[in-house]
Design brief:
two-stranded antiparallel sheet; alpha/beta; ten-stranded mixed sheet
């Protein structure tokens, strides 16, 4: 294949815009013809890890107007003769920084894959080093987990309105354009700037939706796409927060059965019903008197929120409940926060590197999930009714998932939400027990992408599959596809690896329990 920015490769760039905006195509060629000034990303990082900045339109329907900066990175293949093209990464979010992904992937991808691609990272628009947005939010304002309580609902409404107002005031005319559709267009500018006719891609979590939107908008430029731990396009975005409640109930039921079978070890009950009662008794006790767990006070609502993602791994949840029970009796245990497995360390930029605003991830998250779709209700009473209904239907998290968010007070989106419904051939990957994008969500993406093949890890736990163990069935299937471009003849069901590793996206998501902040897909 042609080397990066090769002479003779036409960097075409035709935007996916409405017919009335078709005249924007010609001015966009100036963005396709940019020549990135590649340089070493940071003196503290490997010299092969290169960075550059390009410009993209803020509003693609007006490419001659305001522009924003997009930070991109690369690690070039060391074997140009085997090069197939570029492999672009997104680690999840919305709001996840992806500039460091190539240097992480270089150490985790198998040689037969790594040698075929220049590995490309980028911070999506509004994120990290790509013209970052900020709403000037306090730590308390960044905490999104608001359980429904009748006496606190007016405060929740005030919080949601305050966040929306702050984001609008801080970002002005930029806010309507921090969207998935525009990030997909940015990806196509990156493709064109790199001199590539097609784009290969590995996206996790939110990155699966971003990849699916790109495939919908630019099907002829979609090459080898892997969507790992998928968002259901039909549920963006309120439904993807609500699906956490729906998905957690079967995980909780599984946990009660698993734990009852190990009563001698955990002493939480020798039947599923008794285990369930133990948990809810603990929640009730913490609501009366918060549990001091390593200096951190947990109410019953805190316990519900903190353990929600942990129930997808029964052993982790059982150990956490045992520890909290000890703490409730005044005995020291292992603090809940310390029970979260450590993530692989992302490359560390030097202190001299420009840092994004403290609330950048939160600001970018709400910008995308509120700005992508106008389907959010605007009547606070609708959220109240939904939270009451879903707390009864999904006791663990239903009221959290359906309570009011800043999107209730957001301006109408600049564009309609993307309907994902195509026959592009690509690969989706999904664990059965995924806390952030539950199985029902991954299956929804697979249905929407009619030309896709699904790699389903039956019994698999955790958010993010690929990149943990090159010997595992799922990794082997993905590696074969990235190496050859050939999809499996049919969907593939895999067993979980004996010793699951940590996938490429695990330095970003999921958010550790009881850490105030924003949800991550």
């Amino acid at each position: 294949m042609a080397p990066l920015l090769a002479v003779g490769v036409t960097a075409t760039l035709v935007p996916a815009l409405a017919p009335t905006q078709a005249s924007a195509a010609e001015p966009l060629t100036r963005f396709a013809n940019q020549k990135p000034a590649w340089h070493r990303c940071d003196a503290s990082l490997p010299a092969a890890f290169q960075c550059a900045t390009i410009k993209v339109p803020l509003d693609y329907s007006r490419p001659g107007a305001k522009t924003i900066k997009l930070a991109i990175s690369r690690v070039k293949t060391s074997v140009p003769g085997k090069r197939h093209g570029v492999l672009l990464f997104n680690p999840g979010g919305p709001g996840g920084e992806g500039l460091d992904m190539p240097v992480m992937a270089k150490d985790m991808l198998p040689k037969k894959v790594r040698e075929q691609y220049d590995l490309i990272g980028f911070d999506p628009r509004g994120v990290g080093r790509s013209s970052p947005v900020t709403c000037g939010l306090t730590n308390a304002e960044q905490n999104f987990e608001h359980p429904y309580r009748a006496e606190k609902f007016n405060r929740d409404v005030k919080w949601a309105r305050t966040v929306a107002d702050k984001c609008r005031a801080k970002n002005g005319d930029r806010l309507p354009y921090i969207t998935t559709r525009n990030t997909a267009r940015d990806m196509d500018v990156i493709r064109a700037v790199l001199g590539e006719k097609k784009l290969s891609y590995l996206g996790y979590s939110y990155g699966t939706y971003l990849g699916a939107v790109y495939a919908q908008m630019f099907p002829e430029r979609t090459d080898r796409f892997v969507l790992d731990s998928a968002v259901d396009p039909a549920r963006v975005w309120r439904g993807m927060i609500q699906v956490w409640a729906e998905g957690t109930e079967p995980a909780f039921t599984r946990w009660t059965k698993w734990t009852a079978q190990r009563h001698r070890t955990y002493k939480l009950g020798d039947t599923p019903a008794k285990v369930k009662k133990t948990f809810w008794d603990l929640v009730a006790r913490a609501d009366r008197t918060p549990v001091d767990d390593g200096g951190e006070k947990f109410t019953g609502d805190d316990i519900r929120a903190a353990l929600r993602p942990m129930f997808y791994s029964p052993k982790d949840a059982a150990e956490a409940v045992v520890s909290l029970k000890k703490a409730a009796r005044g005995h020291a245990g292992h603090p809940l926060r310390s029970s979260v497995p450590a993530r692989p360390q992302a490359p560390r930029w030097s202190a001299a590197a420009a840092q994004p605003p403290a609330d950048n991830g939160t600001a970018a998250f709400w910008s995308v999930v509120c700005g992508d779709t106008g389907a959010w209700p605007h009547d606070p009473e609708q959220y109240r009714r939904d939270a009451i209904r879903d707390k009864a239907k999904y006791p663990l998290y239903g009221d959290f998932g359906s309570n009011i968010t800043p999107c209730a007070f957001w301006d109408q989106p600049a564009e309609p939400v993307t309907a994902v419904d195509n026959n592009v051939g690509l690969l989706t990957v999904q664990n059965q027990w995924d806390s952030q994008t539950p199985l029902v969500s991954g299956l929804g993406m697979h249905r929407a992408l009619k030309g896709s093949r699904l790699v389903y890890v039956k019994g698999g736990e955790g958010h993010g599959v690929y990149g943990g163990d090159p010997r595992a069935c799922a990794d082997r299937t993905v590696n074969a596809y990235l190496s050859t471009g050939r999809l499996p003849a049919r969907d593939v069901t895999c067993k979980p690896p004996v010793s699951p590793g940590r996938g490429l996206n695990q330095h970003i998501v999921p958010t550790p329990p009881h850490t105030p902040g924003v949800p991550r897909f």
